[in-house]
Amino acid sequence: MELLVFLIFAFLAVAAALVVVAHKNPVYSTMALVFTLFSVAVLFILLGAPFIGVLQVLIYTGAIVVLFLFVIMLLNIGREDSQIAGHKAQLFFALLGAVSFGSLVILALSSLRPKVLAPLTPELVSLKALASTLFNEFLLPFEIIGLLLTVAVIGATVAARRPTAEESAATAAERSIETKEARP
Amino acid sequence: MNVDVVVTVAKIAVVLGLLLQVAPIMVWVERRGSAMMQDRPGPNRLGPFGLFQALADAVKFLFKEDVTPAAADKPLYLMAPALALLPAFTTSVVIPWGPNFTWDGKEYAFTVSNADTGVLLFLALASLGVYSLVMAGYASNNKFSLLGSIRASAQLISYELAMTVAVLAVIIPVGSFHLTDVVAYQRTNTWNCLLQPFGFLVFCIAAFAETNRLPFDLPEAESELVAGFHTEYSAMRFAAFFQAEYTSMAALSALGCTLFLGGWSLPWLNYEGMGWLGVALGLGTLLAKVGVCMFVFVWVRWTFPRFRYDQLMRLGWKFLLPVALLNLIAVSAMTLAGWL
Q: Which of A144, B153, B164, B240 lies deepest, with the highest CB count within 10 Å?
């Protein structure tokens, strides 16, 4: 039974992930991403981590991918315009991504030592255990991540803000001074 | 055969059976209720009080032509209504519909799934509802539909955040995501709507936005967008969106009642010692509370005008979210101080 559920959702996750990469229509790619994330959430629940599975659906499927869709539809990226292949920068960043992901995999595999782990008990994977680990052992990293997100939010707000009337007047004045000075 | 499986199937049957009745009843309540508020008779010809109008509507939906626009994106277009029903019917698995009952000497909770993640599961499944709206609008290949979808995605994201924070504030003093524990907490203390009035307010406003009901029905906005995201749908596919809307209203009302209005319990009454009668009374109590909430949904719809899109966004981000966050901080502090 468990194996059957695993097989169905593992297959769905991989197939949908392939659609994400391969499909020409960005809306279809995003929808496929929803299926991938949902299937991975089911796999988390199968592995005995229901909290992570539910959070995955709540945050990634329910919020972040909706934002992707919102942007794609707002910018109206059509089926035809999505062909931006052949760009040199794209190749560079694809290589960069492949190299960094590869090194991460190597790092993860090399740090993997065969050791006997305690069997998973309901107490060990409960929310209480997760919370106490997060807020005792990993408090500093947890807080730093929180700070990082706050900084990102503030940065986005500043970047998106319209300049006030005084500020735009000031920049206009600066520009006029610059052009005057540049004149021989 | 395993007794646990039988009990679970029975619980699913009861909950699903109840949820399937919501849409026909609500169509009648909505039409007769709006007529009452506008001082006109409304549909009153079929059966007593026009009650069979819902049946006639259902038959009509079944026999109408199911039109798919030629330029529509077929797979997404056909999938969207089915996907709309999925979160509407699955979210209520975590709602406790009554006190625990014993069967074969074993005690069972009256929830379909007593998962550890409880209310988070509800929120996670409910958050999937936006995809059907977005899919429908995009696949229809219609400007009005697309506008409705874009509005839906922005609106649901904004209000989900405030709602989640309001729900978390309820969870903090309880110390458990199980909704059964939330009900137990309200039985020993008092209803959460009295303990956390601001959280209740935020939850109510966000619930209207989450279910796309007036005054926040911008994805449909029939005066500007024809019918918004479901402009192109007809026959049973249109009815599926209708049913999804009413069912998710009922599910969200049940969640609101469980979180803030004492769930299946009533103050000074103890259903737990009464066996099956207690279970039935608990179920009846929760259904009555849900019914009142559903009527409020209808009442508000025919009372308030629609918000403008920028007003909606401003209300969501500049009022509801800060209030929800302040409420969360206050509740955390009061819980630490031992007041809640």
A: B153
Q: What share of chain A is helix, strand, coil (3-state, %, to 5)?
A: 75, 0, 25
* pLDDT score of B128: 85
Asked if the bond preceding B215 is cis, omega within 30° of 0, the reply is yes
Q: Is residue A18 part of a domain?
A: yes
8 Å CB contact of A34 and B150 = no
What residues in B contact A63, CB-CB < 8 Å? 127, 157, 160-161
Under an 8 A CB cutoff, do B156 and A50 touch?
no
CB contact under 8 A, A57 and B116: no
Q: How many domains does chain A have?
A: 2
**pLDDT score, position B326:** 92
Q: Is the ipTM of this complex over 0.95?
A: no
Q: Name residue B147's beta-bridge partners.
A: none
pLDDT at B33: 86
Print the domain residue range for A61.
1-81
- Which CA distances in Å does B290 have to A23, B21, B171, B295, B340? 44, 13, 21, 9, 26
| pLDDT at position B121 | 87
From chain B, the residues in CB contact with A62 under 8 A are: 123-124, 126-128, 130, 160
**CATH classification at residue A40:** 1.20.120.1200
Q: Compute CA distances B77 → A1, B133, B226, B291, whole Å.
A: 33, 10, 18, 33
Minimal CA separation from A88 to chain B, in Å? 32
Q: Is A31's CB within 8 Å of B146's CB?
A: no
CA distance A145 to A118: 29
Regarding whether A2 and A74 lie in a shared domain, the answer is yes
DSSP B265: -
Longest dimension (CA), chain A: 83
Task: For residue A91, tell me if it sits in a domain.
Answer: no
Which residues of chain B have a pLDDT value below 50? none
Instruction: Find the closest chain A residue to B146 by CA distance.
Output: A73
A76 and A2 in a single domain? The answer is yes
pLDDT digits (tens, 9 = 90+) for B73-131: 888 888 888 888 888 888 888 888 878 777 777 777 778 887 778 888 888 888 888 88
Domain boundaries, chain B: 64-337
Q: Which residues of B touch A57 (CB under 8 A)?
A: 124-125, 127-128
Taking chain A (184 residues) in runs of 10, the rounded mean pLDDT of each run is: 86 90 82 90 84 86 83 68 61 88 86 67 72 86 92 88 75 68 53
Return d(Cα B133, Cα B228) in angstroms, integer. Answer: 10
Nearest Cα of chain B lies from the Cα of A182 at a distance, in angstroms, of: 44
Q: How far apart, in Å, are the Cα atoms of B178 and each of A128, B13, B113, B144?
A: 13, 21, 10, 41
